[in-house]
TrEMBL record:
GO terms for cellular component: plasma membrane. The keyword Transmembrane helix applies. It comes from Aminobacter aganoensis. Belongs to the MIP/aquaporin (TC 1.A.8) family. Keywords: Cell membrane, Membrane, Transmembrane, Transmembrane helix, Transport. GO terms for molecular function: water channel activity. The chain crosses the membrane at residues 7-25, 31-55, 76-97, 117-141, 153-176, 196-214. Coiled coil: none annotated. InterPro entries: Aquaporin-like, Aquaporin_transptr, MIP, MIP_CS. It comes from the Bacteria. It is found in: Cell membrane. This is Aquaporin Z.
Amino acid sequence: MNKYVCEFIGTFALVFFGCATILFMRSEVGLLGVALAFGLSVVAMAYSIGPISGAHLNPAVSLGFLVSGRLGSGDLVGYVIAQCFGAIVAAGVLYVIAQGKVSGFDVAANGFAQNGWSAYSVVSAFLFELVATFLFVTVILNATSQAGSGPVAGLAIGLTLVAIHLAGIVVSGASVNPARSLGPALFAGGAAMSQLWLYIVAPCLGAAAAGLLLRNRAILVGDTAAQAA
């Protein structure tokens, strides 16, 4: 149960800090500030709850771990529920805060840090989310492996998320995380809900591909070691 509580808290923190930066501070900090908010949130959670749950904070990441053979199916369900619940609660808290704006806050007019595409086509957004999630999960799986980055794994993962946001915020919103997209979309409604499917399907496909890559590499290395013995 501790693992699931940690995933709830970690995903809450990711959505709270990242989406709060978009909602309340984007004009002050710009896209770089938004990217850093998401990336640094991951770094903080990786070093605080990582030893307990692995700090997935993302259903797609958990799926990648499942496919790679490093997470059981029972834990996948628990992780995904905790992550989605954490994202929804974080969005709810942000909604209450936003409603306290003295000059008023209109979700329809101001948005709610939801992911979506408009400047680029749905194909562009889908491809970016798929490729970016594949690269992100590949970094996570390798950085956290026994032969991985060790003490600096959290930093490597967080900086990768910063790079993803810098590369694709304008294209797709740079979600690479179904839970992060789900929470704000429930409060934004409209187009955010109609476009939510992309932020579930594309990241999950990318994560599954990364998991398969690592699993096949492990099998290949195992076979090579057996032949050498």
